[in-house]
Amino acid sequence: MTVTDDLAVSGRASGELGRGKRRRAAAAVGAVALGLVALTACDKPTPLATVTVGSTTVTSEAACYDDGNALGNEKVASCLKESAGETVKASMEDKLRFGVDPKIADEGWTIFINGQPAEQEPNKKTYRTIPASAFFAGGQGGGATAKTQVSIVEVSTGKALGVWNFSIERES
């Protein structure tokens, strides 16, 4: 008995087999087309920045980023005010480890504390460590703050290219 004989015995004609294959092929083509449409609708991911305290690491995409193009001053000021997406807790004795994507480090980056620049010169390394106490010091004789917004700002030739926001919360 051949495959054709089997199909005839089971009640399926050879034309029915062809329609099933065509339906499966059409479904596969439709799924591929839908997948391609979905991919073209996605935004390109931004480079990532991380903050680590002890064994806790938080990672964030940029609050503002234009694929390496300079952001206007008003846009940067607005981005620095955006609430932080990620929060990490630290005690005064902890060390904060900041890490950036190599793409950010190639241009240079600096840290802002509560919207104000905390450094004079951009850093070109992918990683650095800063004592947590530096982020909780109150200004002008004030006590230590409980929560601080820290922003990593990618810079190139004096222009901001991206802003990543984190919140550092003081543990007692």
3D architecture notes:
With 172 residues, this protein is an alpha+beta fold. Helix content is 32%, strand content 33%. The chain contains five helices and ten strands; from the N terminus they run ααβββαββαβββαββ. It has helices spanning 3-10, 14-41, 73-81, 102-107, 133-136, and strands at residues 49-53, 56-60, 64-65, 86-90, 95-100, 109-113, 116-117, 127-131, 147-156, 159-170. The strands form two sheets. Strands 3, 4, 6, 7, 9 and 10 form a six-stranded mixed beta sheet that branches. Strands 2-1-5-8 form a four-stranded antiparallel beta sheet. β1 and β2 form a beta hairpin. The longest helix has 28 residues, at 14-41. The model is unreliable at 3-11 and 36-41 (pLDDT under 50).
- State the helix count: 5
Poorly predicted sequence stretches spanning 5 or more consecutive residues: 3-11, 36-41
Count of extended strands: 10
Radius of gyration: 27 Å
What's the end-to-end separation, in Å? 82 Å
Tell me the helix content: 25-40%
Q: What percentage of the residues does DSSP assign to strands (E)?
A: 25-35%
- The coarse overall form would be globular
SS-based class: alpha+beta
- H/E topology pattern: HHEEEHEEHEEEHEE
Q: Overall mean pLDDT score?
A: 82
Largest sheet, in brief, is:
6 strands, mixed
